[in-house]
Design goal:
This protein has ten helices and 33 strands. By secondary structure, it is α+β, with helices and mostly antiparallel strands. Helix 6 packs parallel to helix 7 and helix 9 packs parallel to helix 10. It comes from Runella aurantiaca.
Length: 589
């Protein structure tokens, strides 16, 4: 699936006001926040795991039920209509409001390649249509809606749609219903519904009222003392660095103490706190994330630092080195999908021992498996140990980090990255940075492709870097999924401005292509771009068809890549978890 999402976290965090029966400031989001808070107060963790819809409904007030029944999805119609609600027949419990509000199940059925939907209908007069939640479960194929006029002669106009940024198209075979899975199209539409207006949605809306089997816990909750130390760059790597860490929510202040190694001249920088919430994380709902941006550093200099405060205590001392102002050789390590795996974590910790000289790390997306669950990010940081406290980390998001059409808000809150990306893409998900004589273009494949194309060309056309690299989660060349649009829109730019290497993940195998130009192999890296794919967790592909563009490949992970650049020479080594070289090549300019 493409997963080029059109929606963002607006569905979880911003709800407008509709309806009249509930209080004036009531929204689904506020109701669920209050309900979860009361559940924490009343139930033990074991009891939270057993709640059902039969328990939830009496637990709610009448006002809360009214909000959940009327303020999940609303729009205005200019003529009397029949609203058809397509509900996945595999969902065990129908939404509590569906029958009570007057919807009736028909004999019609709508299908796509994965699901079969019951069709429920209700007549509405001219004015507002108000619909309720999908359910208290997290049933990802949420309902979608068709709207037709009661009189054939009427011309329908739908307006004031909430949530905003909705898409309306013709209800027909071939239409898609989920923006986060736009290749899943309808295969069967009853004649009575064909030609009506179809309101599409995202699967992430299943999370908005999730309570049944919803609660999670983290094995690594925050404490007062700082942890999860993380370095990154949002500005010039030669004179700045960003330092981040985590504490319990009760900690309100923090700072960084830093000094040149072998010096006693200590400097201090205040950190900005940001409270993060994962309301279903029962043992660590709120945490504090701190970010300090150190500036006016001396190039090519080793620094030591620690974070915290007198009241919370201090972290262990770690160190970093700034980029040299004058050209020098450098190296970096990049990983394919990590999925917060302990296998990847062990390998990552070993890379720091094997390659202590590296300048930074990157992960090419899918850092975790469910990017909306903070307990998975806790696992990611736990398994990586102290690696990112000593070397800056410059990642990009994958489809698992930006999931179900809800965007990658948690990813964005966790990492301090450059904000120089295209205007129409969420900040810090697509960005560029320079290190020595190399340009790194970091692309968010989960955002619309055409929103990034002009920005990519600008970065490439204006760059004077000797080496040009692109990091992109979805691999333009692979045997599992065809990314023709990426090749068409971005591949031509990689050809035109001679990108040396494109680094990807997603498909869970290793591949290094021959140099490619205009989608065909050429005989020299000077004439084309080398495309690489990697995987950082155990994997095995049973299906293993030929790839005529491949120069080297293998089915299983985990592996990582160490790249060294010394002026006009690049050397790549792909190594397994034991440090054995699995693939290598050199480019000389």
């Amino acid at each position: 699936m493409k997963l080029f999402a059109f929606f963002t976290s607006i569905f979880l965090s911003v709800f407008l006001i509709f309806g009249t029966a509930a209080t004036t400031d009531s929204t689904v989001h506020k109701v669920m926040d209050n309900v979860v808070t009361r559940l924490y107060q009343k139930l033990t963790p074991a009891q939270l795991d057993t709640i059902s819809e039969a328990y939830i409904l009496p637990f709610l007030t009448n006002e809360e039920k009214q909000t959940l029944a009327t303020r999940y999805w609303t729009f205005d119609v200019n003529v009397p209509v029949v609203v058809s609600l397509m509900r996945d027949q595999a969902q065990k419990v129908p939404p509590f409001w569906l029958v009570k509000s007057g919807f009736k199940k028909t004999n019609m059925q709508v299908k796509n390649e994965e699901y079969a939907y019951e069709v429920w209908q209700k007549k509405f007069p001219k004015g507002k249509v108000a619909l309720g939640i999908n359910g208290f479960d997290k049933h990802r194929p949420v309902y979608f809606v068709g709207v037709g006029t009661q009189k054939k002669s009427d011309k329908l106009t739908i307006s004031n749609v909430f949530p905003a940024n909705q898409h309306i198209e013709e209800f027909k075979v071939g239409a898609f219903t989920y923006h986060d899975w736009d290749e899943l199209t309808l295969t069967e539409v009853p004649p009575a519904l064909q030609g009506q207006q179809l309101l599409t949605t995202i699967r992430g809306r299943a999370r908005e009222a999730h309570l049944v089997k919803a609660f999670r816990q983290t094995d690594h909750p925050a404490v007062n003392k700082p942890d999860q130390l993380l370095l990154s760059w949002s500005a010039d790597p030669s004179t700045t660095i960003d330092v981040q860490w985590r504490t319990q929510a009760a900690v309100k202040t923090g700072k960084v103490q830093y000094w040149k190694k072998n010096s006693t001249d200590m400097l201090t920088a205040k950190a900005l706190p940001f409270q993060m919430e994962d309301r279903l994380l029962r043992n660590d709902r709120y945490i504090q994330r701190f970010t300090a941006k150190l500036t006016q550093l001396t190039p090519a200099t080793a620094y030591a630092y620690r974070v915290g405060s007198l009241s919370t205590g201090w972290s262990e001392v770690a160190d970093f080195r700034t980029e040299a102002a004058q050209p020098e050789a450098f190296s970096f390590v990049w990983f394919g999908d990590t999925h917060k795996s302990p296998d990847w974590g062990r390998m990552a910790r070993q890379t720091l021992e094997r390659h202590p000289e590296i300048s930074f790390y990157s992960v090419i997306g899918d850092l975790v498996s469910t990017g909306l669950d903070r307990n998975e990010w806790d696992e990611f940081f736990h398994h990586s140990g102290k690696v990112f406290s000593q070397k800056p980390f410059m990642p990009i998001p994958g489809n698992h980090d930006s999931q179900d059409g809800l965007g990658a808000a948690m990813y964005q809150n966790l990492f301090s990255l450059p904000t120089n990306g295209p205007d129409k893409v969420p900040s810090e998900r697509t960005y560029a940075f320079n290190y020595q004589n190399a340009l790194f273009i970091m692309l968010d494949g989960t955002s619309p492709i055409n929103a990034q194309t002009a920005w990519i060309e600008k970065q490439l056309s204006q760059s004077k870097a000797k080496w040009k690299f692109v990091m992109l989660h979805f691999p333009p060349y692979n045997f599992e999924e065809d990314y023709a649009q990426i090749r068409k829109e971005w591949g031509v730019l990689f050809d035109r401005y001679h990108v040396d290497m494109v680094m990807s993940g997603h498909v869970h195998y290793y591949m290094r292509s021959k140099p490619m130009f205009a989608e065909k192999p050429v005989d020299s890296p000077a004439k084309g771009t080398i495309y690489t794919i990697s995987i950082s967790i155990p994997s095995q592909h049973k299906n293993w068809p030929e790839e005529p563009y491949a120069a080297a490949r293998f089915q299983s992970g985990p592996v990582y890549q160490h790249i060294r650049i010394d002026n006009n020479k690049l050397t790549l080594h792909c190594l397994d978890e034991y440090g054995k070289v699995k693939d290598e090549f050199t480019i000389v300019k």
